Amino acid sequence: MERPLAGVRMWWGVLWFVGLLLSPQVGEYGDTVYFWGSAAVGGMYLWSKYETKQQEAAQDEKREKEARRRDADALKMAQRGQKARAWLGELAKEHPEQDESHRPPPASVVPADSLPRLLYVRDGRGPSSVLLPRLDVATYACAAALSGLVRFVAAEAVEHAAALSLPAHGCTQSRYREADEPQLGEWSDLREGSRPLPETAERLYTVLAWLTGRTTVLAHLYPPAEKKLARLNAYQRQLREWRKSSRYASKPPGPPTRPPGQWEKYLNGLCDDLRALAAELTTLSVPPPERRPALSHAILREDSASEVVAAEIQAQIHTVAACFARQAADPAQTARPFPGFDLHLLDGFRTAEVRNRYLTALQACTDVEAVGDALVPELGHLLHYAHAALVLDYLLEVHTRMPDYARASGEGGPEPRFNISDSVVQIANTLTNINSTIAKVIERREPEQAEALEALTAAVQAEQNLSPEQRGTLLDHVADMAEGMAAPGQGRNRSRGAAALAAITQAAAASGQIATVVREWADVFHRAF
């Protein structure tokens, strides 16, 4: 624009000079007219330049104001986005339903006094009779206890639905920001929404924690009921999605604020589904657990011997039977540990189905142990001991069929296939004797002595720095102690037990595990001898 304007000014200057030369020729007033005309034209020219500058200044000021406004809006949007993101970060970290305060109490049965009792009887299928729950009573007890547990969960669902039923004031007005352009980080002004009142939120967290806890319990104990509870996990996922939503942000703590109507629909739907769940659970029929008989034909592995496998099975039978004997002597006692089983007990069989049936039966005991803290002690012990009776019944049948399995495996031919260490067989026999004697100690109503002997036996078995001969010697000492406790009136047994205790105490100096057991049960041992 500078070069055209310069040309215009040049021609204006040429015309003004020509007019100045010609003005005297026009007449008497020509120069005067020319002067004032030139002045007027010059003034107009100056005014146009002034006006142009004013317009440019006004435009500059307008652009500056617009820039300041955009900067202010950008700063406001940035601050709004920063606050919204901070809210989102805090909301995503909130999980009150996982707090210990919302953990559901241990599950029981309905009616509360409907828990059946086990009936203990003598079983003579082994080398010596053992005390164990009667099988038909145990299977009935399992079905009845699980039915009572399902009814208990149904009653809880009804109670939670009643507590959570949404009154007119169950939710309160609250404000939130919505991301209009999530990719650009643009957030709206505060908008009106709703969120649960604090007391409603606490009830909601309790329900969600209850859902998690009871779903876990039923998944282990009765999966058909767990599948019905699992449908309500959609409410937990919905709440997690709302907390992690990048579209809506509200000020924590507490549940996230949502657009009007969403929380009301969520809570009312949860109440309806809880009532429907309770109705479905009450229609379930829990069948008794299946008894798995031993195979009529099975083969041992090439590196296994029927004598060793039978001795190990017998030792396991007597260990569990000792627990049954203690429970039968004092059924109200629920603080004792559950009977333990060796997962690898039947690994000596080449026929995999023998092990599979054992592990399948044992899985029920493992499931009860997994959720033991979520059940009242009476229910947990009843279920575990009832399932343990099924496992023990299977082991007794396998032990009874061991001669058949040995013949099917080719044992007893002209060329022995196995080279069995005498110490291994002796240890197995000693363990069987110890467990049999512990059962007698239990019958004498001495549970502390029985537990001390079991702990000492386990420590000797677990000590890795012992040779088979040393382990066998120490187990012989434990057997002498057990005899002394089982028949304390016989002086000879008592003196042998005292000598055995002294020998074990001396040997414990080289074994941390054995020393720990001797130290922990020292009072019991010294009172016995």
Entry summary:
The protein has 529 residues and is mainly alpha-helical. 66% of the residues lie in helices and 6% in strands.
Walk me through this protein's architecture.
The chain has 529 residues and is mainly alpha-helical. Helix content is 66%, strand content 6%. The chain is built from 17 helices and 6 strands. The strands form 2 sheets. Strands 3, 4, 5 and 6 form a 4-stranded antiparallel sheet that branches. A two-stranded antiparallel ribbon has the order 1-2. Helix 3 runs antiparallel to helix 4. The protein is elongated and about 165 Å long. About 2% of the residues have low confidence.
Main structural class: mainly alpha
Low-pLDDT runs: 413-421
Report the sheet with the most strands, covering strand number, pairing sense and barrel closure: 4 strands, antiparallel
Tertiary shape = elongated
- The rounded distance between the terminal residues' Cα atoms is 120 Å
The helix content, as a percent range, equals 55-70%
Tally of helical segments: 17
Q: Could you state the order of secondary-structure elements as H and E? A: HHEEHEEEHHHEHHHHHHHHHHH
What percent of residues are in strands?
5-15%
Topology, number of strands: 6
Task: Provide the gyration radius in Å.
Answer: 45 Å
Calculate the mean pLDDT score and round it.
82
